[in-house]
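re: ur question from yesterday

yeah so i grabbed the chain u mentioned. its 85 aa long if i counted rite. heres the sequnce exactly as i have it in my notes:
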Amino acid sequence: MLKALAESWILAVVLAALSAVPAQAAEDAALLKDLSSVIALLGLPCGQVVSARRLKDDDHVATCKDGNRYRVFIDAQGKLFAQKQ
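ran it thru and got these structure tokens back, copy pasting raw so excuse formatting
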């Protein structure tokens, strides 16, 4: 009985973890697309953001397909910036 309960609990934990992976992937894809758009709107060369590293809320380092890297952030006044790294 305890073995069956433990197996059920482990299965539930594994299924919960696996179901969270697609949600995170979709969130990451949306972030990369948003960062690509911001960089393009600011008139900087990039093409497409292929990876991003979060520094803190509204502050990321984006790596572009063409090799450029930008720190994309919102300052205290709410203005959006992208600084070449």
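noticed a couple things. The mean pLDDT is 78. also Residues 2-41 form the longest helix (40 residues).
anyway ttyl
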